[in-house]
Every structure is written in structure tokens, then in C-alpha cells.
Write a structure and sequence with these properties.
The complex is a heterodimer of chains A (194) and B (326).
Chain A: E1 2-5, H1 13-24, E2 30-34, H2 37-49, E3 52-59, E4 62-69, E5 86-90, H3 100-116, E6 123-126, H4 141-149, E7 153-157, H5 158-163, E8 174-176, H6 178-187, E9 190-193
Parallel strand pairs in A: 1-2, 5-6, 5-9, 6-7, 7-8
Antiparallel strand pairs in A: 2-4, 3-4
Helix pairs in contact in A: 1-2, 3-4
Chain B: H1 3-11, E1 31-37, E2 40-49, H2 56-73, E3 77-87, H3 93-109, E4 113-121, E5 126-135, E6 151-154, H4 160-168, H5 178-185, H6 189-198, E7 202-205, H7 210-222, E8 225-228, H8 239-244, H9 250-259, E9 263-264, H10 271-277, E10 286-290, H11 295-304, E11 310-316, E12 323-325
Parallel strand pairs in B: 3-4, 8-12, 9-12
Antiparallel strand pairs in B: 1-2, 2-5, 3-5, 6-10, 6-11, 7-10, 8-11
Helix pairs in contact in B: 2-3, 6-11, 7-9
Classes of the chains: A alpha/beta (194), B alpha+beta (326).
């Protein structure tokens, strides 16, 4: 166990030191000594975000934090199975926010690159303006068709298609609904959100 | 200094009674306004700090923009400045040349003149300006004029304190905070000119005491409540992620200690939102209080002028002197 003595130090020094050691020795259990509530909070936040398990021991003026890697704190609500389907969730026909034209080009690039990947996702769920990608006239039809042929389930939100007045224009994949989307996301092993 | 101890110190000083001191009624004013003629008052302010970025020229530009900001917040026009420098004997002089050149660039952009300065030897570089400006007392904008119903518009995103902390901790590189650096270097000149054209009720600039502290000062001076819609805040890229790993500057804790008790509904705030509200800003934006019917005009003109402009809340007659978050 590596010990970092942060007693007498002020924020953000303890966080910076702890993070540095986490990156240098990703597998090690770390012991951090702090004597300041703000520092304790911040080291705990770092540990939680980095997926460490935290044990707190008060001993006199100092607090001892034992950080053990890999054991993520139990998640609230439904637990996500790591072996479930791989899902790509597309909420817009653009990738990223900023310039719409650039966003469109990036999304096109992404879908084309996906067709060339060794491992394709199990399903692609499209909502909001994302459903514009699956309707006739879309520049994404060809690569999405190719993905569908490789077994990718391409599911467009029905309500969204209706909203864009394109229910009859769906040209690749199938229509889906919110209940199915919720179940699919909850049961997924891996969700990539665009 | 932290706001709490500073208040304790200033409380012990005699109050100045001079009819020409127009800011006498405003507690802990960053800048002072002194009337020298019926249509003319001096507005004076001083600010300096240690390097916030590694590049000396960038540091100089940011420090100067930050020091000039108080004048702009009051609707004034900077006239003359004096350089304030602390510099270690062991550092190369070229570094100081770059810092001062950066500062001079901004002073020139502001239309002001450097008339002199003062240096001391110091363990760590420090740089800033003492600024003198002019303002027409009739057009003076203070923190005391906010009226219930007014809108609150902020002209720069938040999060420079967290970014600077991450930079110092070598968690991010300078180019990863380019957006914030560009904004910190930006004078509040255009925003101030637009605010004067549109006609506003009050203004303050957001610096070390964070949105939290500066908005509360405004609430106190105007005897109104300040409602903040936390979902409307603009935040620099990566700030939330950095806050989530605990990269919070020390000043943030001083701010929350001192100001958070005056926030209604504070128990509903997510930790990351508290981090943003209490984050000390360097060369932050203007928090402009504008009559509701002119919010659209103000934000449109600010955006056209190259400033950020986002409405973050309203002035309320409820809870005078407090902030209300939702």
C-alpha cells in the first residue's frame, strides 16, 4: 500500500498528488491522510470518479482514506450487465455541437467508419433528428443498410418519425418505441451515446 | 483575502464622509467613484495577482483585462494606468518584458495610457494595474440599482478557477483551456459600451468572489433578491469533468463558507453546481441587470459585438439580500 500524507496541505494539492499516483500505479491500493474536510471531499470525489472504493477512518485530527481500485461503488437503480448488447444511441443527425455542417460531415464519417470496423454494435437506436438518417433521401442510407446486413438492429423512434412527418419514409431498419428503448438501454452492456 | 476576514478588517476602518465620493454607500466596492465636476467623476480601481497561465504574454494580457474590468463594470472609460509588479530576482528579465508587453497591448486596446508603475522583489511574480477612468455621474452604473423584475445577463462563461487549478496541477494543458484564455484576455469594453447604449439598472463584474459572492453583493446593495436559474449557466468545456475529480481551488471553499448561507434552496444544489457558483473567476464577465423589456435587445447586441450573453435569472422583491437558486 502506498501512502500519501496530505496533512497540512490545502486544496487542490492532495487531489493532484493522489491522481498522479493513481495514474502511475493503476492497480495499487492507496492510503491518503488528510486533515481538512474540503480536501477529504475532493479526494473522495476523485476516487469515486476514477472507480475506486473508499474506506474512511477517523483517527484523531487526521482522516485516513483507503482507496482500492476497480471496485466501483454500487450503482443506484438498475445494474448494468457488462455482457449485454452493445448499443449506439444517436440523438441527432449531427455529431457534437457547434457547427451544423461540420456535425453532419462528422456523423457521416462516423457511420462510414463504423461499417469498416471489425466489431459492429448489436443495435443502433435513433431518436429526435437522428431519425432523419434512416428516411428516404438520407445520405446515410447506404452505410446503414450495410450495417443492417451485418446484423445490426437499426431502430428509429416512431414518435420522432411522426414529428418530422416521415413515418412512411422510413427506408432502413424498423420503427421502435420509448418502452423498448428504455428496456434496451437498461439491459445494455455497453452504450455509446452520440 | 477571503471575503470573511476581509469584511472583519474593513469593518474596523472609519467610514469616509465626502459628498463627492459617489460610491460611499456601496459596501466593499471594488472601485471608487469621486466627483470632480458636475458632469465628470474619477473612477479608480486596482487589481493584481500571481500567474494564472504559463505563457507570460498571455498572463500580462489577462491581468490587465482583469484590472480594467472594474472601470467597465461601472460604465466608465479607462484613462491612465500604472503597472504594479512583483518579480523574483532569480527569474529572467525577458519574462517580465513579455508580461508587461502583454499588459500594454490590452491598455492600448482600452484606449488608456500607461503613465508609470512600481516594482518590488517578490518570491512569485505578481502583475496588475492601478486604473483611473472617467465617468459621467449621470451615467454611472453601480450594484445598487437593481429593480424587481429585471433580468440578469452574464457576458462570459464560468469555470476559470477550476481550469486554472487543473492547469497548475498539470491535469490539463494550456491549449485545452483556449476558450477560457480567449475570454479572460477579452476586455469588458464592448460589453460595457453596449450596456450603456441599451440602458441598464445595475452591473458588477464577476471575479474572485465568484458569481455567488458578486451576485450577493448586488442583492445587498440593491436590497433585492437574486434568482439564479442554474440550468442557464454557460460553463467552459471540461470544467464539470474537472470538478468531478475534485480540482476545486481553495478560493471556492472560502466563497462557499462566506456566501452559501445566504442562498435560499442551497440544499437542492448538485455539488457540481455549487462548484460553478463558488468558482473564483479571473477576468470574468459583466453581470448586467437590465429592465425585462430590454433583455432581448441587450443579448442580441452583446452577441453581435462578439460577447457571450446568457440570461441567468431575475431580480425579485422576495428575500432581499439573498440569492434564490432553482
Amino acid at each position: 500500500m502506498k501512502t500519501i500524507d496530505c496533512r497540512g496541505q490545502q486544496c487542490p494539492q492532495p487531489v493532484i498528488q493522489t491522481r498522479k499516483l493513481m495514474l502511475e500505479e493503476p492497480g495499487s491500493i492507496l492510503e491518503v491522510l488528510v486533515d481538512d474536510q474540503a480536501c477529504q471531499d475532493n479526494v473522495s470525489r476523485l476516487a469515486t470518479t476514477m472507480g475506486y472504493n473508499i474506506e474512511v477512518q477517523e483517527s484523531g485530527a487526521a482522516t485516513r482514506l483507503e482507496l482500492s481500485p476497480g471496485k466501483k461503488p454500487e450503482q443506484k437503480g438498475s445494474t448494468v450487465s457488462a455482457t449485454g448488447p452493445r448499443i449506439i444511441f444517436i440523438g441527432s443527425d449531427q455529431m457534437g455541437s457547434g457547427d451544423p455542417e461540420l456535425g453532419r460531415i462528422l456523423m457521416k464519417n462516423f457511420i462510414f467508419t463504423l461499417t469498416e470496423a471489425d466489431l459492429v454494435p448489436d443495435a443502433i437506436y435513433l431518436v429526435n433528428s437522428g431519425v432523419r438518417m434512416t428516411i428516404s433521401g438520407s445520405e446515410f442510407l447506404e452505410p446503414l443498410e450495410e450495417l443492417a446486413n451485418r446484423g445490426v438492429d437499426i431502430a428509429s423512434c416512431g414518435l420522432c418519425l411522426e414529428f418530422f412527418d416521415a413515418k412512411d419514409a422510413l427506408a432502413v431498419g424498423r420503427t421502435s418505441n420509448m418502452l423498448e428503448l428504455v428496456n434496451a438501454l437498461e439491459g445494455a452492456g455497453n452504450i455509446i451515446r452520440l | 483575502m477571503a471575503p470573511g476576514p476581509l469584511a472583519q478588517v474593513l469593518r474596523q476602518l472609519p467610514t469616509v464622509k465626502d459628498p463627492n465620493l459617489l460610491t460611499a454607500a456601496i459596501p466593499f466596492a471594488d472601485a471608487g467613484v469621486y466627483k470632480i465636476a458636475e458632469d465628470c467623476a474619477l473612477v479608480q480601481s486596482v487589481d493584481f495577482f500571481t500567474p494564472i497561465v504559463d505563457d507570460p504574454g498571455t498572463y500580462g494580457r489577462i491581468a490587465a483585462a482583469n484590472a480594467l474590468s472594474d472601470i467597465y463594470a461601472m460604465g466608465g472609460r479607462p484613462l491612465t494606468v500604472m503597472n504594479l509588479v512583483g518579480f523574483p530576482a532569480c527569474l529572467e528579465h525577458d519574462v517580465l518584458v513579455e508580461i508587461l508587453k502583454g499588459g500594454a497591448e490590452k491598455v492600448q486596446e482600452a484606449g488608456a495610457v500607461i503613465v508609470g508603475g512600481h516594482t518590488v522583489e517578490d518570491d512569485e511574480p505578481k502583475y496588475g494595474l492601478a486604473v483611473t477612468g472617467l465617468v459621467d455621474p449621470a451615467k454611472l452604473v453601480t450594484t445598487a440599482g437593481a429593480q424587481p423584475g429585471d433580468g440578469l445577463v452574464l457576458t462570459k462563461p464560468l469555470g476559470t478557477g477550476i481550469l486554472a487549478t487543473a492547469l497548475k496541477g498539470e491535469v490539463i494543458k494550456e491549449e485545452q483551456m483556449a476558450d477560457a484564455i480567449r475570454n479572460m484576455e477579452m476586455l469588458n469594453k464592448t460589453a460595457s459600451e453596449i450596456m450603456l447604449q441599451v440602458g441598464v439598472n445595475a452591473c458588477t463584474d464577476i471575479t474572485g468572489f465568484a458569481l455567488l459572492g458578486h451576485a450577493l453583493e448586488l442583492a445587498e446593495a440593491s436590497k433585492v433578491g437574486i434568482e439564479i436559474d442554474t440550468s442557464a449557466l454557460h460553463i467552459y468545456p471540461q470544467v464539470m469533468e474537472l470538478a468531478a475529480i475534485g480540482l476545486i481551488p481553495l478560493g471556492s471553499y472560502r466563497n462557499r463558507e462566506n456566501y452559501l448561507p445566504n442562498v435560499i434552496n442551497r440544499e437542492q444544489l448538485a455539488p457540481e453546481i455549487v462548484d460553478i457558483l463558488a468558482d473564483p473567476q479571473t477576468s470574468g464577465g459583466l453581470l448586467i441587470v437590465v429592465p425585462a423589456e430590454r433583455i432581448g435587445q441587450l443579448t442580441r447586441q452583446l452577441k453581435a459585438g462578439g460577447c457571450d450573453a446568457f440570461e441567468i435569472g431575475r431580480v425579485s422583491s422576495d428575500h432581499p439580500g439573498k440569492m434564490i437558486v432553482k
